[in-house]
Amino acid sequence: MTAPEPEADLALSGERLARFGPALGELTGLGTGALLAVLDEDEAPFSRRFAAATLLALIGDPRFVARSPDLVDIPGGPTMIGLATARVDEVTAAWAHVGVERDWIAKEAPAHPVELAPYRIGRFPVTNAEYLEFVRACPEAERPSSWPHGTFPWASANHPVHTVSPVAADAYAAWVAAETDRPIRLPTEAEWEHAATGGDGRAFPWGERWDPERANTAEQGPLCSTPVALYPAGRSPFGLWDLAGNVEEYVADDYRPYPGGEPIADDLTGLYGATYRIARGGSFARHGDLARCQRRHGWYPSAWYAMGFRLAESR
User: Fold this and answer.
1) Are 257 and 272 in contact (CB under 8 A)?
2) Separation of alpha carbons 251 and 34, rounded Å
3) What tens digit of pLDDT does each residue of 80-124 get?
4) How many helices (H) and strands (E) does the chain have?
5) pLDDT by residue (tens digit) across 176-215?
6) Cα 128 from Cα 163, distance rounded (Å)
7) What span, in angstroms and rounded, lies between the C-alpha atoms of 308 and 169?
8) Domains within the chain, CATH numbers bracketed
9) pTM value?
10) Strand partners, 314
């Protein structure tokens, strides 16, 4: 059974965006540097940050260039991935109010050690503007279904690109690798989770406790993607943005049971068969359960499942 369609608290969503119009008027006319300075104000209200990022989308946001991805160094070494089997029922019960089923959480178990080589991973998810460079260079490239009628959404240039297939995500990474002569790729599941938790097994990039103010999920809306880097309190220990909420992110791996775990036959295996491409991190259209660092998910062919990705690089 799939999760119910999300219902945002429209009062909270409206309150969050209530000052967007005045903030937009206040910031209109500022140059790129001044708008970027607003985004560097971690304590700035959401409406002010949203307005600054929206204006940057229209005049050109210099942070996002496909041929020069912003990647963060992550040290290698041992780390723990996944959820302790003894906690599966606890986590299922905690999110039962949004329709979570035990099988969905059981895929995360058992927790197990992984040895990671040093790597780099994107500070941000890949944006529409970056993906446009790929489409211009490769006219046969898949257009995101979130681009209306296949046209580029200029006002959302600095939003994460979505919804694309895992094949398109792989193709984009391969194109950037060829353009830069660097070993660019999608991150593995273990690399993604380690980057989100900092290696301490936390439930969310910011800590153990769910906080809907720290991520763009269905709990508070606005039920659409937002420019990247609007939630400074949601950053991971390595300073990565949007690992929880906004759009889900494909990794390089297909679903397999973790070492010592049992195969889980759920609605995704019913849709695709024994395996499918894993996605992580949750989205604007889903609830906070999918924003958990350990959650293993996948794409449903529905507009409510906003699938994007970020890049990684071997070192």
Assistant:
1) no
2) 35
3) 999 999 999 999 999 999 999 999 999 999 999 999 999 999 999
4) 10, 9
5) 999 999 999 999 999 999 999 999 999 999 999 999 999 9
6) 10
7) 8
8) 10-17+69-314 (3.90.1580.10)
9) 0.93
10) 119
